[in-house]
Amino acid sequence: VVFDTDDEDLKPGMTILLKDGDRPIATVKFTEKFAPNKPLECLKCYGTSQIEHPGSLMVATERGRYYMGGEVTGLNLPIREFPCRTPKEVRDSLPDDKDVVAFQCRNPVHRAHYELFTRALDDENVGEGGVVLVHPTCGPTQADDIPGNVRYKTYEVLKEETADPRVKWDYLPYSMHMAGPREAIQHMIIRKNFGCTHFIIGRDMAGSKSSITGDDFYGAYDAQDTAKANAEKLGVTPVPSLNLVYCEEEGYVTADFAEEKGLSIKKLSGTKFRQMLRGGEDIPEWFAFKSVVKVLRENA
Predict the structure, then answer these.
(1) What is the Cα–Cα distance from 188 to 201, expressed in whole angstroms?
(2) CATH says 2-74 is which class?
């Protein structure tokens, strides 16, 4: 574990106590202290050292002058606004003889998401009787994202509304770094530790745009390609997410099928959805679950 600090007095050999408020969380016995090469760190982590990448900006402006590493001894788990079970607790709750497909998200789950991760169980690489672990990141994310405690509430009401025995729900105290394909690999490793055998890789997963030009830092399918290339090494099978659209005639189908059949596709952008939400307008049920919309409005 690496910590950042501006404290000149902290030195290797010292042991400190980490606290969450007044609650002791862990002790750290420092073994090394160094001044990092931050541009190189960003280049290796994010694929770019440009300051307009949110990760590079965070490293440059929020992290301390020094990094310190050492031995961590856990004392207590943090107390959070929402429950975050440990990897072992989650593993023990999952079937040990079936495939477990992880679905990662950082936003409320809407109809298209639900269709996507339930249909993933029909993928040719997923065995019969498999289950989905919906495992959202509930830590701080981007400035315009919905707060983690509100997202948690939307997941809980949706879990109750759908009551699907094939879908399990747990929550990850993690903040997205928007690191594209490298972050996809990290998520695969994390979900393997939580007991998952498969991982759904979406288009432009953990993607990011320049805050200056608006250009994408990563290709739309870089994350999927990187996941496939490293799947055997990681021991996690990637499941590409279906490109689903809603049609008046047949509900949710793949975009290719809709185009082939000449179906009437209905669209609602995220921006338009937020405008309708703020304006108190009716949200079409083909787009969002009523229970989720209710929570979002109550916590606006």
Answers:
(1) 9
(2) alpha beta
